[in-house]
Structure formats: C-alpha cells, structure tokens
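Handoff note, outgoing to incoming analyst
You'll be picking up this chain. Sequence as last confirmed:
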Amino acid sequence: MSEKVVHITVRPNGPLRVEGHIKLTDADGREWNLEGKPAISLCRCGMSDKRPFCDGAHGRNGWQCETAPPGNLT
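Most recent structure output, in case you need it:
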C-alpha cells in the first residue's frame, strides 16, 4: 500500500496550508469532518476565532513571521 504525500506550505505571514489526505483530530481524539476538503489552512498566529483553522486574523492584526528559520533546512 503506497502512502499519499501530504503537502504543508508555510505561508508568508500567514497560515500553514495543508493539502492531501488529511485526518485532523483534537487532543481527545475527536476527528474533524473534512469530507470534500482537499486542502485546509491551519492558524499559526493564535488569533483565529476558528482555531485550529485560519480565519485571516493574522492579516487584520498585522501579525508577521518568517516562513523559515535562518539557515539550511536540509
């Protein structure tokens, strides 16, 4: 059985964009219904009212963050 690749993109000054077969659960093991959603955006600023999903609060509040740490990632 081959595993499908999930792509996660760190958006500049924004969310984590997750694309592929996604199973998202909370700390208690409850799963979000993501049926029909080939991609989701996860909050990384902590300001979203729809956490763990992004609602654009980062842009409304001027939140900024680098897309990658300094140095070589590989």
